[in-house]
Design a protein that fits this description.
Elements (H helix, E strand, L loop, with lengths): L1 H41 L3 H21 L3 H20 L1 H22 L8 H10 L5 H31 L2 H30 L8 H9 L7
Helix pairs in contact: 1-2, 1-7, 2-3, 2-4, 3-4, 4-6, 5-6, 6-7
Length: about 220
């Protein structure tokens, strides 16, 4: 039936359009986050900063529900509830939470895959991207790298907490919104250079190619 086919086609186009807008809105909000937050901190617009963080959290929860990532959606919803409670009582406290909680959660994701019976996260990523058998040398390297990422991100989280407690808010903002991102980039670049030396017999994708391969991966499982 032509009418039914046209209706179905229009529904598919609208669904893709909405998904495109939603994902790009979330990407724009995430990329602009450190710059906007730093500006609002310097201009003492703490309530606006807190609401912005709360909104991003809700968008992330909604995205994970739409993509059927139930565990991530539940975690983001719980974080959103926590932020909402803090928003009611103390706007400034909300501002400090992401710089502490985000690296801590990512460090946990890396660290929990090092337990018995689980595949280290970096090993999983390497195996999925290469689609070939991982050698013993690669296993040792990816296990160590998973451990290093966990320790590094945990250190970033501790640093952010200490800055929130003992430094002025401007210094905290400069370091957590800019310096820490630079440190992560330096760590990743240094690891790439070391990997090319230690695993010199392997082909190593560039940054853009690696990101494209990474976003296609399914969530890590036991």
């Amino acid at each position: 039936m032509p009418g039914l086919a046209r209706l179905k086609r229009n529904f598919q186009i609208n669904t893709v359009f909405k998904k495109f807008n939603f994902e790009h809105l979330l990407l724009l909000a995430t990329v602009s986050y450190p710059f906007l937050l730093h500006y609002w901190v310097l201009t003492e617009q703490f309530r606006l900063s807190a609401w912005y963080i709360f909104s991003i959290c809700l968008l992330l929860a909604l995205q994970n529900f739409i993509q059927n990532h139930k565990h991530a959606a539940i975690v983001m919803t719980l974080i959103g509830i926590l932020l909402g409670i803090l928003l009611y009582y103390n706007n400034r406290m909300v501002i400090f939470i992401p710089s502490i909680l985000i690296p801590l959660l990512v460090a946990y994701v890396f660290a929990k895959t090092l337990s018995n019976g689980q595949e280290p996260l970096v090993t999983f990523i390497a195996r999925k991207i290469r689609r070939t058998k991982i050698t013993e040398k690669e296993l040792q390297y990816t296990y160590t790298l998973t451990w290093l990422w966990a320790v590094f991100l945990f250190a970033i989280s501790v640093e952010a907490a200490l800055l929130a407690l003992f430094s002025d808010i401007e210094t905290w903002s400069y370091i957590t919104n800019f310096i820490n991102y630079i440190l992560v980039a330096i760590f990743a670049t240094a690891e790439y250079m070391v990997r090319k030396v230690i695993l010199k017999d392997l082909e190593h994708p560039g940054f853009i190619q690696f990101i494209k391969q990474l976003v296609k991966l399914k969530p890590h499982k036991k």
